[in-house]
Amino acid sequence: MSQLKSNDVEVIGISGDNVKSHQMFKKVHKLNFTLLADDKGTVAKAFGVPVRKGGSLKFEVDGKLENFVRGVTTGRQTFIIDKAGKIAFINRKVNASKDSKKVLEVIKELKAKEGLNVGDKLPKFEAKDDQGKVWKSTDHVGKKILVFYFYPANMTGGCTKQACAYRDDREELKKLGVEVIGVSGDNVKSHQVFKKAHNLNFTLLADEKGQLAKIFGVNKRKGGSLKREVDGKEVTLIRSYSASRWTYVIGLDGKLKHKNQKVKAAQDSKDIIKLVKKMKAAKKDKK
Question: What is the per-residue pLDDT across 240-270, written as a single tens digit (0 to 9) for each?
Fold first, then answer.
């Protein structure tokens, strides 16, 4: 249940048992989620779940023989309703002992597809940085406010303006307790060239397999390559995909505080500074 709760999942069990039956069932097994008494089969029919004749069972509870009465007997089926109120998953062949694990797997898959929403916790991940070393989220989350900005490609007009703005604003961002991380589908070598050409003073992550784009829910387009002259030599910059220009802010609690899917490249760092100042002011007001 704790894993389901951490994924913002509310569990509701439904059967044809009456309220008293549910109360005894919860007490005996110390259940920590809601049970609905669908003794007339109304909810089951709404979901299209087969309904059969009800009945009763006798079990000993606290030394007394109790009668568990159910108005109808429903089929064992599981439904997942998303935040928009739509059915996202149906399992009509439920394995009782494995149902919760199956639900958790599906929830994680659905979250990966929809990406991070405000209030969601950032999943743990590892990626290659611009030095080819492993960058672990667990080494950074909780220590500073993290800004992950996804961008299409190194050494292109808008992306260069965005990166240089973050470079120039680094000291102010640092004073605000912010760590900036740029993410694109470019490979490590491409990142090294980009950093050197523009003296970038923050980390770039090489998301060649699109793992981070999937976690954050960033749209991807076809990748490619660019030729640019650096230090008098022509170099080829390769990217596996072109990311949408989206920016995410992770708070000290590891949760998403803000995402911007309409980023203005040259203005992004200034917008983040304003946002973080507002976040800090709001936190002071609460105290």
Answer: 999 999 999 999 999 999 999 999 999 999 9
Residue 16: exposed, middle, or buried by beta-carbon count in 10 A (0-12, 13-18, 19+)?
A: buried
Instruction: Assess whether 95 and 156 both reside in one domain.
Output: no
Last residue in a domain, options 85, 114, 143: 114
Please state the domain count of the chain. 2
Question: In the annotation, is 164 catalytic?
Answer: no
Q: Which domain holds residue 35?
A: 2-114
CA distance 278 to 263: 18
Which is the catalytic residue, given 107, 159, 163, 212? 159
Which DSSP string do the residues of 49-86 spell out, in sequence order? Answer: --EEEEEEEEEEETTEEEEEEEEEEE---EEEE-TTS-
| 140 shares a domain with 87 | no
Examine residue 198 and state whether it is found in any structural domain, yes or no.
yes
Question: Which residues, given as ranges, of the chain have pLDDT below 70?
Answer: 1-2, 6-7, 112-113, 285-287
pTM of the model: 0.65
My answer on whether 161 and 97 are in the same domain is no
Name the nearest CA neighbour of 114 among 138, 141, 80: 80
